[in-house]
Amino acid sequence: MLAFVIRRLIGAIAVLIGVSFIVFLIFIVVPGGDPATRLAGKNANDQLIANIKHNWGFDRPFYTQYGIMMKKAFTGKLVSYTNQTNVTTQIKEGLAATFSLSIGAAIIWMAFGILVGVISAVKAGRWSDRVITIVALIGISMPVFWLGILTRYFFAEKHTWFPDGEYVGLTQNPFQWFWHLLLPWLVLAVLFIGVYGRVLRGNMLDAINEDYVRTARAKGLDPRRVLIKHVLRNSLIPIVTLFGLDFAAVLGGGAILTETVFDLHGVGQYAAQSIGAFDLPPIMGVTLFGAFFIVLFSAIVDFIYAFLDPRIRPA
Amino acid sequence: MAERLLDVKGLKVRFATEDGIVNAVDGVDFELDRGRVLGIVGESGCGKSVTAMTILGLTRGANARFEGEVDYKGRNLLTLSEEALRDVRGNEIAMIFQDPMSSLNPVYRVGAQIVEAIATHENVSKEVAKRRAIDLLRQVGIPRPETRVDDYPHQFSGGMRQRAMIAMGLANNPDVLIADEPTTALDVTIQAQIIELIDKLKDDFNSAVILITHDLGVVAEIADEIVVMYAGRVVERAKKRELFYDPQMPYTWGLLGSIPRLDRPKPERLHSITGAPPSLINLPRGCKFRPRCPHAFEKCIDEPRLESRVEDPTHLDRCWLTVEEKRDVRERTIEGELVA
Question: Is the complex ipTM more than 0.85?
Answer without folding.
Answer: yes
